[in-house]
Amino acid sequence: MSGHQDGRQSVRQNGAVQAAPDRWKPHGALAMRRRFMDRLATGLSLTATCVALLALCSILLTLLVRGVAGLSLVTFIHSTASPGMNGGLANAIVGSLIQTAVAILIGAPLGMMCGIYLSDYGRGWMASTTRFVSDMLLSAPSILIGLFIYQLIVVPTGHFSGFAGSVALAILALPIVVRTTEDMLGLVPVALREAGIGLGASKWRVIVFICLRAARTGVMTGILLAVARVAGETAPLLFTSLGNMDWSVSLAQPMASLPVTIYQYAGSAYDDWVQLAWTGALLVTLGVLAINILVRVGFGRKGA
Amino acid sequence: MDGTSHASGEAPGAGSGGSGGHVVPDGVAGVMTAEVTVAGDGLAGEDFTGPGPARGFDGDRLFRGLVTASGIAVLALLGGIILVMVAGGMKAFSTFGPAFLVSSVWNPVTQHYGALAPVFGTIVTSALGLLMAVPLAFGAAFWLTQMAPARLSAVVGMAVQLLAAVPSIIFGMWGFFVIVPLMARYVQPFARHWFGHVPGLGALVQGAPFGTGLLTGGIILTVMVTPFITAVMCDVFTSIPAVLKESAFGLGATRWEVMRNVILPWSSKAVVGSVVLGMGRAMGETMAVTFVIGNANKIGWSLFAPGNTIASLIALEFPESPAGSVKLSSLMALGTILMALSFLALAASRILLGFAERREGRQ
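YS: structure for the whole thing
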């Protein structure tokens, strides 16, 4: 509101100085129209914000109302089973954890190195092309990554595997880590680098032990956001790790994961499967949102 | 700032660690190494430095090689994706020829496949999604950056960003169990009752009220891409130099006039870039759309008719496509088309947003 009123006042003063008060009529047609347009825009944009918030609330409420009912010990210690067999989500939860962890172990170091390349070594067309490509991968459809890994790993090895799923997730995590690492290294003060170089440290030591250390909060933020992103991915896993009804922690075998289990169960005709899908959805969403809130509230304050 | 101050305390330790406490020689050697390192030849520094774990081999060259290799790996990744997708779709392209692009047949029995219906569905749902998402995102960004008190803006902004973090399968379930019944029970009967007999409009609302369909897909996409577009627009709107806005306010402009006549012209390219980015996201969205699209391979005018998108067709048909079959190759060919569409959109948005960033850098 303040901007609006300031604007009106300054116009009024202007009129007073020119001693022509009849030129500006606060209740004239033009003023009314301008005020109406401003109010309209204000109202509409407030409505738009509320619609977005409403969607979030509706999703969270639906998840809570339908998901909480299935939260029990059985859900966490039993593997998925046939309808009516009192199954749980244990294999899916563990499978999701394993695949996400392996994906981050592959994607994070590669992404950090690429980020270092872009911020400290890359010059010219190759660096700008790499940056461009990484930014494009950031928004690339995840289903394409799934098809890519299917052709690259699943077809040659002849079977679906948790490893293939992890690699697909790693490709999704990679550009997030690249982006944050480059941005955060760019924020490290030049004086810090100069101090390191001046003390005789070689360039790689300055980067790894000084710059990365200084930027570690930001880099961790990127890695956590990557975890949150890949933990909920379904499409690439459909073609790579496939899902597994039984307990399996072998990366060479098809592996269950929460999102794929949710996908398979949500459309089923069995009430207990649908219930498990809701519970799984609640778990995934709570995990992903918790990481996001942690990152934005916890690390956000420290200039990350 | 916390991390920075911590590391500055660490810096001397890292520097002197190499030559174990000989203060004066270390300083000399340090200067020499620094000069030599800048020149790009780490080996010459060996003569001057004391014994140290990292001085024996050329760490710099190795490190440079490693990070450059990882940069090349990212480039190779995109090249590999393009190559593998095109190679996978080759069989379908060569079997059906250019007709693949304009045929709307999808018949596993006769082994005849065409891309038109899913491409149509992809474009229609994305367009519907954007049509609703752009005003929403613009309004939210306008409110968040220009009107809301800072505290409230931070909280609401974060909530909107959380919406972007929700996994797409959750949107799918939410759409399937909340939006679809809503559409079937209220929106579709209402629309048919009021618009069903209007010439022109009537064709848009035909069909049985299943609740699923192109419009439902568009609504889900709206909810999914709005936070992305909002985030980019917020960045763009806050990056405008304050003096431009203040001059306009000083001239007596209302907030809406400042937005329309100052902020939007200044940031038009980036705003278009954010919309195109949203389009790229919307086209590639799989799981959420798969739940609500209705999965019917046909082209029609009705917004309520079940349809298909490229991504949902791939997700749904993949389990029934054995490796090496024409069907799988057709799915890969569809993937190639999706890749072309979304990469074009993403590249365009990058370039448009790049203009804005460059201008920011100059000022």
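YS: worth flagging: Confidence is low (pLDDT under 50) at residues 1-20 of chain A.
IM: good catch. Also The radius of gyration of chain A is 27 Å.
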